[in-house]
């Protein structure tokens, strides 16, 4: 772990990525402490300070009902990271298990599982999520379910390809010769050798999940007001460009920082861990 961190910090781009990711995570975790106006994350109205440009103490300006934009972005990071973590916690075990079973067992099991996966992969992710959210009430929980439904097939496809190649390796054949069960071979022999690629993809996907969730909110299908969300903040502010530019620019930059940071770290981990498949 220390060696991996040392290698990441030696590379300027990966070090920048770590800094951005740390900034996003710390902003979300300590939003209650950092935010100058923590109550502005809710249904607060302050018409005396509405639509103010960036100035002290509103360093990112205020929105149309006087809420501090900087405080709301910090809390929006909390929502985005929560959604991203929950989606991956659900999607990764599902996708990895299906991929391992299909790749190792082969035959009809492989055919059925991978054809189901191909059906999900054939639908554009955002379209699938929009379809689900169109049927469900637009809440944070339903948003997580919608994004999860489109995310597990990518891990299935990744791990399926890894498992197919790993099952021909000597250590797998040796385990089979000594009578190891299929469950042992799949989860104790093959899975550990897939972990670097899985970790790399998870790091990259955290940024993409935030982007997809923001896209749903931008379209009005994600987290609903007054809960702060980066996508809905961009959508609301876009109506008042270019005069009230800060309403859109700062939430948009917040999305960019999160996605860019996780992408840089993911690319660096792919080089360090060898998870480039």
Q: Can you offer a commentary on this structure?
A:
The protein has 277 residues and is mostly helical. It has helices at residues 2-10, 12-29, 31-34, 69-105, 107-121, 125-135, 140-166, 170-177, 182-218, 230-238, 246-273. Helix 2 (12-29) packs across helix 4 (69-105), helix 9 runs parallel beside helix 10 and helix 10 runs antiparallel to helix 11 (246-273).
Give the tags.
single chain, 277 residues, mainly alpha, elongated
Return the structural class: mainly alpha
Low-confidence stretches: none
Note the quaternary state here: single chain
Largest sheet: none
Through-space gap between termini: 21 Å
Output the helix-strand order: HHHHHHHHHHH
How confident is the prediction overall: mean pLDDT?
87
Task: Present the secondary structure layout.
Layout: H1 2-10, H2 12-29, H3 31-34, H4 69-105, H5 107-121, H6 125-135, H7 140-166, H8 170-177, H9 182-218, H10 230-238, H11 246-273
Helix pairs in contact: 2-4, 2-11, 4-5, 4-7, 4-9, 4-11, 5-7, 6-7, 7-9, 8-9, 9-10, 9-11, 10-11
């Amino acid at each position: 772990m220390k060696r991996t961190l040392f290698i990441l910090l030696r590379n300027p781009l990966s070090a920048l990525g770590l800094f951005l990711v740390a900034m996003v995570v710390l902003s979300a975790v300590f939003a209650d402490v950092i935010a100058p106006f923590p109550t502005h994350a809710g249904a607060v109205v302050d018409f005396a300070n509405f639509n103010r440009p960036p100035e002290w103490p509103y360093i990112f300006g205020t929105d149309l009902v006087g809420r501090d934009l900087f405080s709301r972005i910090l809390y929006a990071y909390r929502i985005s990271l929560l959604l991203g973590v929950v989606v991956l916690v659900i999607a990764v075990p599902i996708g990895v298990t299906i991929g391992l079973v299909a790749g190792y067992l082969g035959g009809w099991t492989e055919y059925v599982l991978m054809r189901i996966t191909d059906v999900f992969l054939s639908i554009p992710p955002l379209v699938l999520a929009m379809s689900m959210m169109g049927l469900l009430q637009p809440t944070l929980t339903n948003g997580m379910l919608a994004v999860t439904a489109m995310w597990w097939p990518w891990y299935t496809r990744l791990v399926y390809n890894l498992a197919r190649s790993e099952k021909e390796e000597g250590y797998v054949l040796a385990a089979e010769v000594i009578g190891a069960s299929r469950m042992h071979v799949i989860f104790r022999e093959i899975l550990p050798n897939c972990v670097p690629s899985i970790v790399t993809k998870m790091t990259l996907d955290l940024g993409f999940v935030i982007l997809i969730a923001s896209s749903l909110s931008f379209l009005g299908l994600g987290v609903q007001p007054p809960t702060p969300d980066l996508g809905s903040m961009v959508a609301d502010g876009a109506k008042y460009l270019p005069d009230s530019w800060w309403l859109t620019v700062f939430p948009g930059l917040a999305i960019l920082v999160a996605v860019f940071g996780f992408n840089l770290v993911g690319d660096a981990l792919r080089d360090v861990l060898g998870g480039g498949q």
